[in-house]
User: Fold this.
Amino acid sequence: MKIGIVCYPTFGGSGVVATELGKALAAKGHQIHFITYKQPTRLDFFSENLYYHEVDIKSYPLFDHAPYELALASKMVNVVKYEELDLLHVHYAIPHASAAYMAKQILKKQGVIIPVVTTLHGTDITLVGKDPSYEPVVTFSINESDGVTAVSEDLKKSTLLHFDVNTHIEVIPNFIDLNRFKRQKKEHFKKAICPNDEKLMVHTSNFRKVKRVQDVIKVFYEVRKTIPSKLLLVGDGPERDKMERLCRELGTCEDVRFLGKLEAVEEVLSVADLFIMPSEKESFGLAALEAMACQVPILTSNVGGIPELNIDGETGFLCEVGDIDTMTEKAKFILADENLANFKNNALDRAKTFDVTAILPLYEDFYQKTINKT
Ligand code: GMT
Assistant:
């Protein structure tokens, strides 16, 4: 198939899923055309089946905000027409689904039929999308998509609850490439961070409010009182300064390191003992799956699609949002020498069920069905 993939080219989960999906499809022989405003972060190599089309966003003194959606729709029209695409797959509804609708209508007038698949990822539904300033367009563009997928049963449920959606939503979970995300031998790295054999806790995120990074630091502060440990924070975003201040206030600076946006996150995960994700909302939790693939147990909040990934008491624990005491108690339980190995093995076993080789055919079947019915 010739497939156009539209996504955010950034470090965010939806962009990562879209890029990895495109790469895996290309490896299977499909021709994949990425349409984004910047080269996607994980698309930094050559493959004969991968193409990249940059959206030109023209500025003009009249515009306070350049009309990205129009530039994107125009680019979609051209790529679909000249590359003779079979299908457009847009990731994250805002504004990709409505831009795709507009492109589809323009193409229809020109006698070109293009099926559109929209994948709902999370905050496009649970946070931003349901805001009245976007809701009518999001509802419309979901209903007008020829196929809709959501990354968890919970996200599907939320979509049906908050939007007047009258179309089928197929659940296709996030996936992982176990060839890349696996525990690597990085003893020298572990020794450098934990010279006295301390336990290592890791958190990765985009440091938005919804991730509750402050809970990571508070749990670490409590755990460190009895278990010698270190904390690595990977990623960057709006909450970073506040989090650095919190570390200073709690006096934990010497045991906490902010690593910023790291591409080779699997190297850090390879030496971790516990991954912590205390998010307020999380439709799936791709970062936690990446940790599990590297044999890291996960301590998470009990929200959204996370319980579909984290099996309480086996791969880690599920705790109520903001419940620092319980999170501390569970973190200590996992980190206890007699428990850790079991949790690590269970985490990897669970991650294996989300291997890309198992999930990719679900997308291929869904594309084919969508093309057939259009
Ligand atoms: O808000 C984010 O963390 C980024 C967001 C995105 O769409 O870029 O991530 C969402 O999509 C990921 C991939 O499907 C999911 O694994 C994340 O759970 C989800 N984030 C939230 O729901 C907060």
In short: Residues 12-15, 17, 92, 121-123, 151, 174, 206, 210, 281-286 surround GMT (CB under 6 Å). The chain has a mean pLDDT of 96.
